[in-house]
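Page 42, continued from yesterday. The earlier attempt failed because a stray header line got pasted into the input along with the sequence. Redoing it now with the clean sequence only.
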Amino acid sequence: MTRRDQLVDAGVTVSVLAASLLVLVLDGIGTPSPDATALDATGVALVAAACLPLLVRRRAPLVAYLGTAVGTAALLVLRYPLDFPFSCAVAIYTLAAVYGGDPRRGRRWAARLAVGAFVPVAAGAYAAAGFRGHGVVSGIGAWALTFAGAWLAGELSRVRRERIDELEERAARAAREIERERRLAVAEERTRIARELHDSAGHAVNVILVQAGAARLTHDRDPQRSLRAIATVEEVARSTIVEMERLVRALRDDDAEPVPADPGALEELLDRHRVDGLRIDAELNGPDRALPRSVSWAAYRILQESLTNAARHGCGTARVAVDFRADAVEIAVSNPAPATPAGVRGRRHGIVGMRERATMLGGTLETAAEQGEFRLRARLPYDGVGR
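This time it went through. Structure tokens are written below.
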């Protein structure tokens, strides 16, 4: 029990004690009875005995009730004009709030029987004190209604408290679920970053391999071209190292997030492939706006993979159209393909990865190889993607 609860119980006890003494000082509520005993030291002691058990009403509610009931019954037997049992009403309220929903049936029924037995006991005390008449019957009836109301109020308080506890538990459970979802989202993002690392490294290795081979083959007959190829290898390797460091740092840090690529990065990607020797006819339509992070990365990687496939399995040319619409970004890439299906088979693994990216965002990715041309079309919607 907290310090605040102890102070509340002390305040309630003092208030009930003062109210009970006031009723006795006024010789009861209403018209004073000529047969009533005036308040004296014994009466004060009995009132204290009937009220002080309320100090332990939270720790031992049944004991507190029995103590108030015995003290109140003693006041009635000695003909003190206690017309309203303040201490019993408070004790009954606490008893119902604590034991009314107790899973142990014995304790519940013991509390109910103790409360129900008080009215007959009070009637017997009035009879033993020599009180008779209609006033006694009405007084006992009023007490019965008071006790019933106090029990009902305690039950309602218990139900309300249990409801609050249930809501708090539900809120805590929801918070734990949100935390679990957050951790799952972090794990998913880390997996996505690992895929970015794989794609980036794979692309860089392919470019380095092509340029290193070109440098070796052209070294004797065209030293300048060989030097340009070597410079490209150096540039690609340096940028790849930077990107790998960033992505690996993101994998190590749960709070790190990859910086989304903007539409300008797509132009840079096209220029890089042009430097690598791929002839690209590109058209980028739409406002120069920042995309949602996941859409941006997906668009960048899909275009990167498509251009890599065009360079490796095509005939050295590609047509690219990127359209930034109001609700989605659409990417179309086409390039001449060899007559044999080997080139298409070589693209298959990359297509699976690109389609997975598009599907993850609620988008689509379609491919077709017809009449000597390979075509890819992807649509990545913005809706439902965090920025």
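Notes: The radius of gyration is 43 Å.
Reminder to self: strip header lines before submitting.
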